[in-house]
Amino acid sequence: RWTPGQIIEDAVARIRAQVGAERVILGLSGGVDSSVAAALIHRAIGDQLTCVFVDNGLLRLNEGDQVMATFAENKGVQVIRVDAEERFLSALAGVADPELKRKVIGNLFVEIFEEEAGKVSDAQWLAQGTIYPDVIESAGGKTGKAHNIKSHHNVGGLPEHMKLKLLEPLRELFKDEVRAIGEELGLPHAMVWRHPFPGPGLGVRILGAVNKEYADILRRADAIYMEELYSSGHYHKISQAFAVFLPVKSVGVMGDGRTYEYVIALRAVETRDFMTAGWYPMPYADLARISNRIINEVKGVNRVVYDISSKPPATIEWE
Ligand code: XMP
Question: Ligase: present as a keyword of the record (predicted)?
Fold first, then answer.
């Protein structure tokens, strides 16, 4: 049986042999796969690797800073951080259809990634965090959301005209092996064990048309939810949890006054393969604490609900 250390050693040797003295670019999302790929390739070829991290304005609270702290500051990885919030939000203005939002976000991501990759003028390789289940999935010719996941997130089929060679060092690994080598490479535990996060980010967790006000409210509610899941020990028992912003207003009371504010829905599911999922039986005491904190601490929210739908027929994401 291979140990994480052996897998790393082997991969490092292979990457060096493949790449030689050439330059590599990688789209870093902050997710497990691209993060482990970045750390592994950096271990192999150091500054020959340049990562591009696109902040689309639809990330979780402080996520961009965390990615920069982990890779650029701690590990000395070259990361180009692109602040593209305004571009994404203006491209999304008035777009309410979920699949159209995915398309807008995915296309703009590719456009920006290409712009930035073009600046690394002598790059010959495009690295991706493709893992073994992705390979199987695309061989099976799945379409729709599942395919979309990889075409967006792993930058599948990216700049064809750039004639980049593909570097996929995780291609033969399963998720648990990827996590194990991530730990061995010294990535933060929280990053390695993070729940999956969709490529379109908060864009599909704000129902309907997206704007900055909604994204800011959702980010703050989601951060409280995650903080509470970590501190209560639920986080690692749950496969995926997140908050959803509902753009409807309901009436509440606060002190002597009447409020008329937005609703936050909380989702938490248990699943093995994400094809079917059950809602997580969160204890009432935890729900009560999370709800109180969100309503007290997040301006613009006066009601919190918990999603008790399983997949199928509901999907895990609300869009
Ligand atoms: P659903 O909502 O289809 O989600 O039950 C199953 C898993 O896929 C993730 N997901 C996405 N990931 N781009 C992604 O990268 C997407 O457009 C997308 N839509 C859903 C979802 O978070 C869950 O883990």
Answer: yes
